[in-house]
Structure formats: C-alpha cells, structure tokens
Amino acid sequence: MRAMVSQAAATDNGRTVASRIQASLPVMPTAMSKIADVLLENPAAPINLSITELAEEAGTSAATVTRFCKLIGYSGYTQFRVGVASDIGRGDAHESWRADIGREFHPEDKPREVLRTLLNEHVRGIEATAGMLDLDELESVARAIATCRHLDIYGIGGSAVMAGELQARLYRIGVNAHCWGEVHGGLTSAALQSKNSVAIGISNTGRTDETIQMLSQAASSGAFTVAVTHAPESPLAALADVTIITAAPDLYLQPDDLSAKHSQLFVLDMLYLLVAQQNFAETATKLAASAMAVSGHRRPQRPARQGRRPSLRIEEPAP
C-alpha cells in the first residue's frame, strides 16, 4: 500500500485529480467525459465505488474507466483511487468546501451573493423542468391516479419526503394513496398491486436500489408505473411505463440539493392539481369535509387591527 501511495504521489506532481480531469476534458471521448462529469460532481465517488459501480454510474464500461485513469496519468483504477484518497487527505478547508459545496459558492461570499446565486439556480431548475414536461403524458398519469384502486408512492431518504407530501395531498381528495420510505413495507404493498393500481417511484438519480426494487415489484404485479427522476436513461426510468423528468442541479451543487427537490415538488404539485381537476365537484366536497374535520384544532383568527398600537414613550423631565 505504501508503494502505491508513493507511486501516486510521484505521478501527481502536486496536481489534484480534479485538475487532471479538467486539463484532459478537451481531448476526452464522449464515454470518458461521462466519467469526468460523475467525478467532478462527486470527487470522492471512487473511494466508495468499485470500478464496475463507477462505470454503471457513468453509463459506460469498466474498460473505459481504466482507459480514463490512464489518460489522466494513473496506471490503473487502484492507483487512481489512491490519488483520490490522497487528495482528500491532504486537502485544506477550501478544497473540502469546493468538493462538497461547490465552485460557485465561496466561504467569504456575502449573504446577498449567496442568495442571488442560490435563487438563480432554483428558478432555473423549475423553469427547465417546466420546459421538459409532456403535458399530455402528465394528464394521462393524472387520470390513471384519479381512477385507480390503490396508489403506492416510493422514495428513500429525501425522496421519501416528496413521496409523503404527494400522498398527503392526494389522500385528502379521496385517492387511496400510500407512501413507502422503507423497502420491506414497500415491497409488501407492491406485491399486492394489480392492473387497477398505480405506483410512482421518486429518485433524483434514478439509481436508488430500494426504489427500483419496489417499483419493479409493482410492475410485476401489473400496476401502471411512473418514475420521477432527472435521469431518463436510469434503471428506474427503464422499468417505468411513464417517466417524468425533473431538472438536475448544476455540477456546483450536490445531487441531493434542495433545488432538485423543488423541481420534484413542482412536478408533484402539478400532478396533484391535474388529479384534482378530474372530478372537480367531488374534490371540492372532500376538501371541505377534511377542512371541517380539523377546524377544531385551529385557533380562531384575530380581527385585523385598526391602525398601529401607540408605542409607550417615557417623557424626559424638563430641565
């Protein structure tokens, strides 16, 4: 192991793996540039991924990963991983910041600069998502949900929050919806699906194993399946009857950044509204009934104040 570290250090000449990738990008074939995209987005990925897993993540082959390593100056994947580990180990706080938070945000940025950059990214994500939506396809999904016997919504981690949000909204208007963020319960429910059921899998990357397993089981049971992801070529999208694409965050933000969640929530909110439109009168009745059911748990609204309350002012004694 020491020999490998010494070899990586000798080959590196002070250059980081990221700088090597950036320098080689102009001459990379398309397949290798996909690997570069994955590594620039997640520099620590090789620490946790085998060569086969990294190839799958990038949508290429293990042989291409080996050629990629040689192109940027490493004799193979093992030496490349040592170089990545070396970068992480010797990196200072600024290196860690750039790897984990991004190249567009800096520790010394003023709050207004952070706000402007973040707002632009979130707005662009929602606008890009809106531009990619197939409204006819989205409406067909809404009709299927409105008439289904049972709806399952699957999501792990942050996507489970999105699944729960959609479930709560649809359940309130009479859809027999259930969300599953735990694979055992989700697989059990998926096995009980039928051709009169709908199943939705939510995964930003489309590569979350548990979500793929649950949606796959639902498909095997005959359910109409829907994937919500930013990756149209992902395993989750490949097994779904319909794929709804959401915009991915730029490379300088983490894949699980809230901008991705806002794009997902935008799509799910659109889907909820289209389902609600399918039977407007029944939807309105159920919304009124559910609002009345919880009304006793809401404090009454105070009447609006007329004018501002006069401030208490203490007069100084006259000299």
From TrEMBL:
Keywords: DNA-binding, Transcription, Transcription regulation. It holds the Pfam family SIS. Residues 141-281 form the SIS domain. Gene3D superfamilies: Glucose-6-phosphate isomerase like protein, domain 1, Winged helix-like DNA-binding domain superfamily/Winged helix DNA-binding domain. InterPro entries: Homeodomain-like_sf, HTH_RpiR, RpiR-like, RpiR-like_SIS, SIS_dom, SIS_dom_sf, WH-like_DNA-bd_sf. This is DNA-binding transcriptional regulator, MurR/RpiR family, contains HTH and SIS domains. The keyword Cell division does not apply. PROSITE patterns: HTH_RPIR, SIS. Residues 292-319 are annotated as: Disordered. It comes from Paramicrobacterium humi. GO terms for molecular function: carbohydrate derivative binding; DNA binding; DNA-binding transcription factor activity. The keyword Transcription applies.
